Predict the structure of Nicotinate-nucleotide pyrophosphorylase [carboxylating].
Amino acid sequence: MTETREIERIVLMALDEDAPWGDLTGETLIPEAATATADLVAREPGVFSGARVVEATFRLVDPRIAVELLVADGEPFATGDVLARVSGPARGILRAERVALNLVQRMSGVATLTARYVAAVAGTRARIVDTRKTTPGLRSLERQAVRDGGGRNHRRSLSDAIMAKDNHLAVLTAGGADLAGALRAARERMPHTAHLEVEVDRVEQIPAVLAGGADTIMLDNFDLAALREGVALIDGRAIVEASGGVNLDTVAGIAATGVDVISVGALTHSARALDLGLDVVIEAGPA
């Protein structure tokens, strides 16, 4: 679960971007004593993600605003469902509205798309995981949304695991170095708690990567026949990850080859924000 301080950091940054010197419209037009209620309403079906973000956004704008969550993260909803209800000072609700909607629409869009991928590989051994192709600054929230959609997370950052991709291997072997030997030397230098993943783009690279001691081998842009060949060649000696060319039309076939993990950049870089709205009813303040 995303830590509260990380959520608050992201929300405060968004609020500062949206109203750096206050909400000129709200402070000019809305009486200071006015109160309001507002329903977060689904304009289309989906999977919810962002409950704590909604709470944090309204609380950080004005702690007097009460937030009632009516669905939980990971729960599906239908068109017209009320997902949350807020009440309190009208100025604060209106100031928080756009930031809360932007974030929860984005997160719910990621969760909804992830759920479709997870459903497509049901009954196979494959796990659907995200990538680092995230919106700058929103990685923590988007990774949470992937989990809310039933997916899993890949490494969070470059600091979390060793992942040798094609460009790393090109540099590593430019001087004629033996790939297996270079990987073994890397294993000797890496922390004992670290994980070594190596990307290959053809079956012929797999024996050297296995000999080098890779924990995970990523089969990048392999067709289905090559994926099946790679799974058979690795034969349980490393985790097998498929990547590249993955979409909702191809993911079931990829999963059926026997791979352990399917990484899908589209979960975050191509997810469409869901259509959610905040329906506000302004209540008159005291005369």
Notes: The chain has two domains: 4-117+272-283, 122-269. The longest strand covers residues 35-42. The first helix runs from residue 4 to 18. The radius of gyration is 23 Å.
